[in-house]
Amino acid sequence: MPPRTFKVNGRPVTVDIEDDVRLLWVLRDVLGITGPKYGCGINVCKACTSHINGRAFNPCSVPVSAIQPTDEVTTIEGLPDTVGADLHPMQEAWIDRDVPQCGYCQPGQIMAAVDLVKKVKADGGSITDDDIDEIRNMCACGTYSRIREAIKQGAENM
Amino acid sequence: MERRRFLGYLIAAPTLAVGVKLTADSVLEANALPSPTPEVSEVYDLSDLLLDSTRATANLITIVVNEDGTVSFSIPRAESGQGITTTAAVLIAEEMGIDVSDVNVTLADARPELLFNQQTQGSASVISIYTPVRVAAALARGRLVEAAATILGDEAENLRTTGGRVLSTAGSSVPFAELAAAAANSVTREAITELKPVDEFEIIGTDTRRDDVVAAVTGRKNYTMDLDVPEALPTMIARPPTIKGTVESVNNLDQVRTMPGVTDVVEISTDAEPGRGTTSSAVAVRARTFGQCIDAVNALDITWGGGNVDDESDETILEQLRAADAPANLPSPTPLDEVGGVVPLATDALGEVGPVEALEQEFVFYWRSNAAMEPNVAIADVRDGEAEVWTPSQIPIVTQSQLAQVLGMTPAQVTVHVPRGGGAFGRRLFSDAALDAARVSQEIGKPVRLMWHRADECRAGRVHPMCISRVKATYSPSLGEVVSFEQRQTSVATDYTESLGDMITSQAAKLPFANELTLSQTVFLLTASVPYDLGAIVFGYNEIFDFDRFATGSVRNLNNQDFRPAQELMVDQLAAKLGEDPMEFRLNRVEDERAKAVLEAVRDEGDWGRDLPEGVAQGVVVHNEYKGSVAILAEVDTRPETAEREIRGATTGPRVRKVTVAVDVGLAINPLGLKAQMEGGVMTGISHVFTGSLHLRDGNFLEGSWDDYRYTRHWNAPPEIDVIVMPPSGDRPGGAGELAVGAATAAVACAYARAVGEMPTSFPIGHTKDVPFEVKKFVPPLPPSPTDGLTAYPTPSAAGPAFNPAS
Asked: Where is the 2Fe-2S ferredoxin-type domain positioned along the sequence (chain A) (predicted)?
């Protein structure tokens, strides 16, 4: 159980914890980074969606031992820094559209949306309804229609 | 016209503080008691009950003007996404002349003196706070103006307030910040004020974003599990493999206590109804992280005793529901004694009816979960004869009193804080997580941060009870009219004891029916409605089982999520039999102008009757509840290329591709928030029609997480949804949180029926097809977290193949 060192939101962190503890709990319970939410613990609701080295992933399903010292983890708290602003364009779109209701799933929705738009743009395309249909992030308040509008709006400014 | 005057209190405090006693609200008097008209709910509904039972203590809410000029209000309601804090801020800002962003609304701790005026349910919050909050704000404004008059050297009646300043006619002004202390009162005394006239509203009726939208999208919004409470370590529970089972023995306690991170392992009672009802127990684990809790819970070797319903499955419940259903008995001018709760209806004489024909149908509605995204959570610190608890309760006073009971304390020894919730939907009318947390904390003498695993919610959580709805309608082909309409619902018992029980008892003398009804029958009559003239209308409600045989409870929109779809599907059948267009049939028989107006709005905006390809169809319904009226027009696409499209791990199926909603809540305080509630209600209705259900099999539910319980997902959500907020039809707001759910369920069901040419009679439609997922283990109780999260995204880890309810 050696101490694990990696970067979270641009800041180096070291944690002393058993190897198989999933990263979500290291972030939340050990490091006090509470933006990523627990919704299922088995990678189906996607409420904890964050980024590792710029790609979306779900820390509920990654043992901390799988995180390398060179890995950079970004949670919703660190998203604005990735564009050097107070808010990421996707967050601005979310605010503009007043997307959240309870808000619990929204950090994960935003992190998934940013990843999706980046991927679509990298493939040379622009975001479509079919792309959005494939997002797995669950919302029990049912804010899907505003999320759909906000993703399209946020994508334009990314 | 003389304006009404309201009484309040100026409260002794360092800065300006006002409190409000609600008096002389003539709206209620005008609404008093019912005449013998069709449905009880038309004249005295759940909104009235919730309002009447809160009136006596509505005087105790207070508004404070702070030294920096901002205004604080601690609202005795839960905020779980429905937007009530934003609504309260709008009301205060409007009345005081201050920016909405300068009003800070927080959630009040449990306050036993508020009695019924601290519960968040039945879409009643905005209805019940509307006047008191405005009165408090008007009083505060009045005091600020008085204080400013001296400083500005002008008469108070010449002054106005805007942007957090008091302005004189000469153009000079003074900010609230400079007046907060000057307007303070050294003694508490009564004061009288008037309210701003409706026609002078500037903020009410315009779009206001949520007060916590920035916090929510930046991860800074703190939910219960995010609160920094020292030493409150993660705690989870090993629950029995069947509903309400009990622990017989724990066979490896010492071994689990030495697992990494684990600090405590303890057996606790999990009785949901302290002091009565069924008993159950479980084993709690406290550890450094929730991940270590999950591992320890699954490592426990527990010998379990039997559960409460071990021999029951969907099929056995359906048999019992059918056996309990009373025989048809209609038309009838007298109550149907076997079921009780049936209201005889007056209707205009139809004239010579001639021979009639009958339609008869049974509809089955399976179990539904009311789970929110945030699981059931509570932080508890029970030490030294005191308990401090944080939990997003919808009914904190009951939570407090139950905690006191199980902890052997007085309510005064128990503090209940109410953080903002991550969804509620009726689930948080029950205090299960708070009771769990307090029991563990008391037993081990340490603070705990207790969270239910998602699997707990599916299998040990609260459910909307399975029920059947039987409809029998008669019509006269020669007359072209419906002659009678009977609808009877028979359900597994719903547990209303924690939420509505005491309130209904307190208002019993006012309720417009004298016969002896059960709690559930009362709730049914307060909510069930038939918006159309369908001749002689009779409906009734019956239950099987004790109130707590299953863990049931209120689910967003109570009975109408079942009652209305069954009814509207039959209305479509009647329209077809009488050769009328479904829209015209409804417009011709709808009983009030507001309902007619919303129907016409969706007809026009939603392009009713437009040409659609085969397999695509529209459905329309109108629904009156919570002092409001909503019409929903849904378009469902069942064509194979849509229904069978493949998204890995997704339940695709028929797609609701377009929804048009028109809503009239009387006076919409915040149309942006109102629209959000309609949109959310539509998504829940889609789930109810197609896939969202729990399968009961041998004493427990098969679903174990969000991949199994198939609530509406992005791939099911309509790409197009348009919500029309009608111009104000009154000077008071109605409720919104639940208004769209039953209506959306009904509209989508009607559209589906027309698209496939066959009326579905079992909901969700997908329920009785194969179980399209691999059932997660019951022992150990929690599905272990995967380890492939770096390579799996976006591949689903456990979902089954695409599943099409239409095939």
From this structure: 6-54
